[in-house]
Design brief:
four-stranded mixed β-sheet, single chain, alpha+beta, elongated, about 250 residues, 434 Repressor (Amino-terminal Domain)
């Protein structure tokens, strides 16, 4: 019995694949099809069956299936372009899972706007209250942040292990209006990222990394938020050598 084509919009099939960071070969391999078949779907010469479309939508591209019947792709910033301080080669290397996590984070910001009424209701808002000059020394900047968070060295010495330290730092930062979420990332070299916002900046930590690394990433991303730019933490920071100007200074100092 012949399977009925789904009639999905070929433009959206291509858009969803590219936004998810998949190559034609990767999609073909996942579906156990010849790449020429995927090309035919995206050119409009053929169409996936509904069952095949379900796999594309839910398992690979992580999109609602109704989207594939829209007349045009929705307006959406390409995830890799969110992090302007990363070199092109690093942005292009973001995996489909990392891209999906970035979309989740942006969706979380939207949910926060809906739930909290569009305005951050924290009693203290670190990213609005604290201004650090680019000419400030690292030690001066750290002292200001520590003072605002209200955690002294004596407090730290009383913490029994890195698990408690991560919990305490996370709570302190969240109490100042920044939302910190944890998620396991399949791309192990990514240890965290942050998305700025005028009301609801968020930090995502890769909870498959050690607590000590998560603490480092937490402050790395906090620094990006305080400087008003999206950030990403990588275990391998060799990419910093390929940056120039303010981008290199900013990332290196965090």
């Amino acid at each position: 019995m012949a399977r009925t084509p789904s009639g999905a919009n070929p433009k959206i099939l291509k858009w969803a694949r590219e936004m998810s960071g998949y190559s034609l070969a990767q999609v073909a391999d996942a579906l156990k099809k010849d790449p020429a078949i995927i090309i035919a779907w995206e050119s409009g010469e053929d169409s996936p069956t509904y069952v095949q479309l379900e796999k594309l939508a839910y398992q690979l591209y992580k999109r609602p299936i109704a989207l594939f019947f829209f007349p045009e792709p929705p307006e959406e910033t390409e995830p890799s372009k969110v992090f302007r301080t990363l070199p092109d080669i690093e942005r292009q290397a973001l995996s489909s899972d990392t891209r999906y996590a970035i979309r989740q984070a942006k969706a979380m910001q939207f949910v926060l706007y809906e739930l909290i009424g569009g305005k951050n209701d924290s009693d203290t808002i670190l990213f609005k209250d604290l201004r650090i000059s680019e000419r400030a020394t690292i030690s001066t900047a750290c002292d200001k942040v520590r003072s605002y968070l209200g955690i002294t060295l004596k407090d730290q010495f009383r913490w029994k292990d890195s698990n408690e330290a991560l919990k305490k730092w996370r709570e302190a930062i969240q109490d100042t209006g920044i939302f910190v979420f944890k998620r396991s990332l399949k791309q192990k070299e990514i240890s965290g990222f942050s998305l700025i916002d005028t009301e609801f900046p968020v930090i995502y930590l890769n909870n498959s990394t050690p607590n000590t690394r998560q603490i480092f990433s937490l402050f790395h991303e906090l620094a990006h938020i305080l400087q008003g730019e999206n950030g990403i933490s990588k275990v391998d920071d060799a990419y910093i050598d390929r940056l120039s100007g303010r981008n290199r200074v900013t990332v290196h100092h965090t």
